[in-house]
Amino acid sequence: xxxxxxxxxxxxxxxxxxxxxxxxxxxxxxxxxxxxxxxxxxxxxxxxxxxxxxxxxxxxxxxxxxxxxxxxxxxxxxxxxxxxxxxxxxxxxxxxxxxxxxxxxxxxxxxxxxxxxxxxxxxxxxxxxxxxxxxxxxxxxxxxxxxxxxxxxxxxxxxxxxxxxxxxxxxxxxxxxxxxxxxxxxxxxxxxxxxxxxxxxxxxxxxxxxxxxxxxxxxxxxxxxxxxxxxxxxxxxxxxxxxxxxxxxxxxxxxxxxxxxxxxxxxxxxxxxxxxxxxxxxxxxxxxxxxxxxxxxxxxxxxxxxxxxxxxxxxxxxxxxxxxxxxxxxxxxxxxxxxxxxxxxxxxxxxxxxxxxxxxxxxxxxxxxxxxxxxxxxxxxxxxxxxxxxxxxxxxxxxxxxxxxxxxxxxxxxxxxxxxxxxxxxxxxxxxxxxxxxxxxxxxxxxxxxxxxxxxxxxxxxxxxxxxxxxxxxxxxxxxxxxxxxxxxxxxxxxxxxxxxxxxxxxxxxxxxxxxxxxxxxxxxxxxxxxxxxxxxxxxxxxxxxxxxxxxxxxxxxxxxxxxxxxxxxxxxxxxxxxxxxxxxxxxxxxxxxxxxxxxxxxxxxxxxxxxxxxxxxxxxxxxxxxxxxxxxxxxxxxxxxxxxxxxxxxxxxxxxxxxxxxxxxxxxxxxxxxxxxxxxxxxxxxxxxxxxxxxxxxxxxxxxxxxxxxxxxxxxxxxxxxxxxxxxxxxxxxxxxxxxxxxxxxxxxxxxxxxxxxxxxxxxxxxxxxxxxxxxxxxxxxxxxxxxxxxxxxxxxxxxxxxxxxxxxxxxxxxxxxxxxxxxxxxxxxxxxxxxxxxxxxxxxxxxxxxxxxxxxxxxxxxxxxxxxxxxxxxxxxxxxxxxxxxxxxx
Amino acid sequence: xxxxxxxxxxxxxxxxxxxxxxxxxxxxxxxxxxxxxxxxxxxxxxxxxxxxxxxxxxxxxxxxxxxxxxxxxxxxxxxxxxxxxxxxxxxxxxxxxxxxxxxxxxxxxxxxxxx
Lengths: 892, 115
Known about the structure:
The structure holds two protein chains of two kinds. By secondary structure, chain A is of the alpha+beta class. Chain A starts with a helix and ends with a helix. Chain B is 59% helix and 14% strand. In chain B, helix 1 crosses helix 4 (83-108). Chain B has helices at residues 4-23, 28-38, 50-60, 83-108; strands at residues 26-27, 63-69, 75-81. Chain B is of the alpha+beta class. At the A-B interface, helix 1, helix 2 and helix 4 of A face helix 2, helix 3 and strand 3 of B.
């Protein structure tokens, strides 16, 4: 209790410092005066009286010190003192301070920038209520290869009733709808959701309401809810739009609610443009084999994803047994939302985080070296302080304060650099990789930067601490000792510096190897043969509202006219139509059986499937290998035909020609006879999905035969090969489309070149970042090597002088220095190569066509780094060469 | 771990409190002289060490100080015992007497009495 009161009083004393100092002085003066007076009365002379009084009192300064020690909290007191001292000495060596702060700012800034991206994407909280308990449910069929299939409505109902670990099971469907009747027609991303969808996620409408259960019946489902973004851009943020009618897909829908705006950080039914009620068709409601519904669910409190998964496996097994026709081979998978969301970006971001961490380590090593040099230069000052009574702990503490101060200042500058870095990152990053509007410096990032700064400060602040532990301090007092300058002694001071440099080189090697692997991988990606000619191709995507055409003949006629008109447009070399086109991000799949093989529907195989018009292959420059292309003769009334690609032919027919073979894709004609497609042509492979994925077996149906196959076509792509720059023809092409129908929505106009660029954009960005940070790390390491070698030359001037006096030629001296530098570099590289072999394995998943242990890269980078290290030693070596023996011998 | 200075300070504090209790408010110099007198010059402490001790006692709340006028007619700081200090004095006096008694018993113990 007493101690506490004492502590608190001492805390308060911080404020009353001066007053108390005065008071003490006055008291001491008075005490001595009284004693002097008494001595005078006892008969001593005035001088003697005072002297005796002072002797009796004791050491005044010592008493004052003890008084102060009693008065203040020692720890804070010395801390303040250390801080003031550190500031003073930092101000006295501006070069050192600037170099250290700059190096730290670069290292810490890079970390801040990358971490804020990680914070916004991997760590971000999802905008849903209790998002950690939300999961996606996927279907998986053992005989298909795909993992992310849907479920059927009856299955969903069974899961809902049988599952104890899921408290809500919500089916939904994505769709695209066309908004017409306002401004230009627009294609919107939509989701059909049931009534409990919004409550599940905790979304409340800004205006209006969410769907009612009775609205999710087919027929009563003409309601729509607008997203905030759509409401702002298309409806002018006008609340009175609630209750009005809008035209979607040619049908009137009533707007019943408006949702608040959410940023689109992931692909989710909660982040679409518009919602309509989920009203499954009678077929969807009853046919258990229609596995095409997406599902979201909420876990019960305390249930883990794994527990839910186990339960789902059990339910799937039961359903497969009860309904073998529909569900055999099917299982369900539950994935937490966060896992799904971050699948693509997790590894690259973590790699980046590792990379900037290494850069920071190199920066710390550099600053550590700087500190060591400084410590050595101040050795006399430290020795004096030591003999005056400072304990080693005190000296270390003061050095730590200085380094922490530097680190905090460096961290503050790093924060600034980091914020610029964030701006640059979000500007350059491809959409989808980074949720651009959420990447900012928030509390998480600030805390991260602070801890990183403090850790860095501790790290390189401790380096000089090793300096003090050696006998160097005592020996430093001997200024004239030749021993203090011999190579042997100074090299005893140097091991730590050399260790730091070797570490730096190792780290730099790892960085540069990683960056080189990424860059090579990217260049391979760019040079990959896509299988078609990407130059001078323009693509326009059209979508047809379901009410636009009454029959498929109408649509065919419309499209044919359009294609003919486009062909006739000046500047167009050839034109065609297709259901999809390469790299468009969407693709179709079809299941089929081959004639002569089993009829069992479960023996179906699948392949990529597109519909294309005549001249499609020619327009895109895809070579025809066997047989023929589609012609205008191929129509709804003629034989159903098919063209396949080389992979398809090889996979299913081996060396034989596929021409003439027949395939059943599941269609039946009016008399319920199977419709067989005959293969009439084979074309070369095309990388349809992305440059990274190898071509898959693919089959093409004629566009003008496809009306009765998988439902109505609602979109088509017009492809033009132009004679000159495709961009020049954009307005002409659009004009042709709108001349035919001014309400036809054109959802996307793009050149094929653009598409290719976009498809590799995230790899480009990654490689760029890795290259940039690799270069930064290398630069810091070079500076480090230069510093150490330069310093060692200065230390060894005496030794060099002796050598030269004994007859060494300047060239030999230079070789000596270079050999020293090279030795350090090689040791560092050896360690670095070992580390790289272990670490690059982690980036294997993002590499393309390059092995993680690619020998060419390793050897090349090692040689490069050795050359660069030699170059860094060049200047100090030249300096060593020019040492004059007589001067050197006198050098201290 | 109590060092010698701590023990000395502890007993010195006790002496200061007792002195203030018996002789009333006093300034630093007066306290030092009186402690010398009472201990009959057997105890010679550097008078200066008194001041950090006085500050400690004041911060603990055992004594309080105020400006007053010394015999010289000049300004001096006078210290007096507070109620807390009085209580502390009583407790510590009791402790001392107990300790002294235990030690005395040890010194009186003869070899025969210890079996």
